[in-house]
Amino acid sequence: AGVERVMGFCTAEEYHEFLRSCPEFERMLVHSGIILIKYWLSVDADEQERRFRRRIKNPAKRWKLSAMDMESRKRWIDYSRAKDEMFKYTDIKQAPWYAVDAHDKKRARLNCIHHLLSLIPYDTLPHQKLELPSLQEDNGYMRPPMTDQTFVPEMYP
């Protein structure tokens, strides 16, 4: 309901139909016994810009950015409005949206995992004591020379 509306990938009629039918569909899923949990990982425009700039500078992460990301960045306010509108229709009692402060990725993930586990019934399994076993006797085994193997080049030593 965000990308489709902001980028014009759907008609106004299709968008409004989604907002109407999505809550009905989610209620149906919950009624049939599915545990439906929705998370919105939230960052502000400044944090998004910092992340984009870090990715642009880092060749190992640059692939994560697409032309669509660049276009979407320009439309931050439109996306924010679309998110607010989507929440207005789809944040229902049976399947609420849970917003996660995602400015710190690690903390956001841990908070999200903790929250998720608090919503799902499960039995705690007892921790078994583990002991690292000794290696078997080598009985004269000689590992082949490393030079006999073809290794992937170490580009990032």
Structural notes for this entry:
The protein is mostly helical. The protein has one domain (3-120): Rossmann fold (3-Layer(aba) Sandwich), CATH 3.40.50.300. It has six helices and two strands. It has helices at 3-6, 12-31, 45-57, 67-74, 76-90, 105-119; strands spanning 38-42, 97-101. A two-stranded parallel ribbon has the order 1-2. The radius of gyration is 24 Å and the shape is extended. The chain starts with a helix and ends in a 38-residue tail after the last helix. The model has no long low-confidence stretch (mean pLDDT 95).
Short recap of the structure:
The protein is 48% helix and 6% strand. The protein is mainly α and 157 residues long.
> Which secondary-structure class do the elements indicate?
mainly alpha
Q: Biggest sheet, in brief?
A: 2 strands, parallel
Average of the residue pLDDT scores:
95
CATH level-1 class: Alpha Beta
Named at the architecture level, the CATH assignment is 3-Layer(aba) Sandwich
Q: How many structural domains does the protein architecture include?
A: 1
Superfamily at the CATH H level?
A: P-loop containing nucleotide triphosphate hydrolases
List how many beta strands DSSP finds: 2
Q: What topology, given as strand order, has the largest sheet?
A: 1-2
CATH fold name: Rossmann fold
Question: pLDDT under 50 segments (min length 5)?
Answer: none
**End-to-end gap:** 43 Å
Globally, the shape reads extended
Radius of gyration: 24 Å
| Proportion of residues in helical segments | 40-55%
The helix/strand series, from N terminus to C terminus, equals: HHEHHHEH
Q: Count helical runs.
A: 6
Strand coverage percent: 5-15%
